[in-house]
Amino acid sequence: MSTGGISGVNSPIYDGTNSANGVGNESGNASNNGADFSGVLSDALKEQAMQSMMTQMASAGGSNPGGMNTMFGGPNAMLGMLGGLGGIGGIGGIGGAGAMMGIENTLISAAGTGEMSGAQLMLFMMIMMMQSGDSGSSDMMPIMQMLVGLLTQSSKDATAGVQNNMLMLEDMQGGQQGDIRRMVDAALEQVGYRERNRDGSFGSGNITKFGAWYGMDGQPWCAMFVSWAADQAGLLHDVVPRHASTSMGVKAYQDKGLYALRGTGYMPQEGDAIYFQSANGRIQHVGIVVGVDLENNRVHTVEGNTNNAVQIRHYDLNSTRIHGYGKNGGTGLGRIPGNSTEGTGASTV
Fold first, then answer.
1. Tell me, what CATH number does 204's domain have?
2. Which of 20, 25, 245, 260 could bridge across to 112 with cysteines, CB 3.0–4.6 Å?
């Protein structure tokens, strides 16, 4: 355990005349070269440590069940502390003043600067408990038992704290990000679905369950597929416009101020509607953004009515095939699907 908390000959706390608390120290000059601090921790210094501990406990508690973990620095820090104590002299055998001197030096320095860590405060309290008892090192066993209990509880609280923080994040997002993910998942579950002809055979007849749901079966169905997926997540109308025409979909987003043209600096988000154009600028197709791959500068999509089926595609973010994005309120770059194939006209030319 480090004793580097006090360097040189004179300590800023125990210099033989004054301390940071205005309390003298009968031990004289303090250094790492033989000074013995066992039994000389001042009442003022103890009070300061207690106040510091109470402050940390107060800030670590409250509504966050993982707060205790903040105070003690995490299970790894606690394990390291316990291991260090064991290395000094073994459980029940620490009691000697010489073995404790380095610990006390470090704690005294930390207390004087007001920068005690949670682990240091715990060690400090242990020393105080030892010095206040009559049995010396025999006090270590109940102290160590107490530390093991605290370690176990802090580990449990840390897990609970992470879970609560995740729930809090979902609450802060108002649940819409979860709805966006459900829409994307509903669309992805349809990958491989193929349209049929009117006689029931697979083909290019635009006969789909999405068209039947919309009330326009037998018509091009890419926009109806987007509308259907939004409906599965409860986002239709309020977030995603109900549309069968791609140009009408773009207009609906534009009317709400939620449309971003390609090349204007907007980074597509998970769940956005992505609209495609032909070489002459006619908006003719739409899909849903699944994820953005910044490393390869690609946007991955799930699209209906692509080669007469639902497929996962990808495009260069600068592809002139992309007209723009209908913003649906997603707050992340989404996921990169492993079975994505390059979309028609996906290059930047």
1. 3.90.1720.10
2. 20
Say if residue 197 is in the same domain as residue 257: yes
Among 1-5, 288-292, 345-349, the least confident range: 1-5
Q: In this structure, are residues 348 and 306 in contact, taking their beta carbons and an 8 Å threshold? A: no
Please return the burial class of 257, using the count of CB atoms within 10 Å of its CB with bins 0-12, 13-18 and 19+: exposed
The total of structural domains in the chain comes to: 2
C-alpha span between 180 and 329 (Å, rounded): 8
Q: What is the mean pLDDT of residues 128-132?
A: 56
Of 328, 316, 321, give the one whose Cα is nearest residue 306.
321
What is the Cα–Cα distance from 250 to 256, expressed in whole angstroms?
A: 10
Phi-psi sector, 57: left (phi>0), alpha (psi -120 to 50), beta: alpha
**Burial of residue 279, with CB atoms counted within 10 A of its CB: 0-12 exposed, 13-18 middle, 19 or more buried:** exposed
Place of tokens 């994005």: 325
Residue whose pair of structure tokens reads 């809090």 in the numeric block: 168
Helix (H) or strand (E) holding 88: helix 75-89
Q: How far apart are CA 269 and CA 332, in angstroms?
A: 5
274 closest CA partner among 236, 330, 205, 231: 330
| CA pair distance 214, 289, nearest whole angstrom | 21
Indicate if 138 and 282 belong to the same structural domain: no
Q: Which two tokens stand for residue 212?
A: 């039947």
